[in-house]
Amino acid sequence: MSMTVDAEKFCNILKSKGMNAKELAQRIDMSPCTISNIINGRNLPSYQFTNGCFFELEMTEHEFMDCFYRQNILSNQ
Question: How far is residue 32's CA from residue 54's CA, in Å, rounded to a whole number?
């Protein structure tokens, strides 16, 4: 099972934290292009990305699961 990102939920969290993708990229030591590709579904999220997002965005477990796993769980039912 491949993990995807719920782009709408993810972008809403970014916005609520007052951050944009470029700033997140700098904070988690990834290129802005890679972040964009992950958000737009062209690349799968890596451990570095998901772990970095969890800590840098101070995501709750619920937010994390909604952004990275909810679609996968629903599609496997």
Answer: 17
* 46: DSSP letter: P
The count of C-alpha atoms lying within 13 angstroms of the C-alpha of 20, restricted to the half-sphere facing its C-beta, is: 3
15-47 pLDDT per residue, tens? 999 999 999 999 999 999 999 999 998 999 999
For residues 12 and 8, what is the distance between their CA atoms, to the nearest angstrom?
6
Handedness of CA 14, 69, 31, 54 (dihedral sign): positive
Percent of the chain scoring above 90 in pLDDT = 75
This prediction's pTM: 0.82
Report the alpha-carbon angle 13-47-58, nearest 5: 30
Q: Give the length of the chain.
A: 77
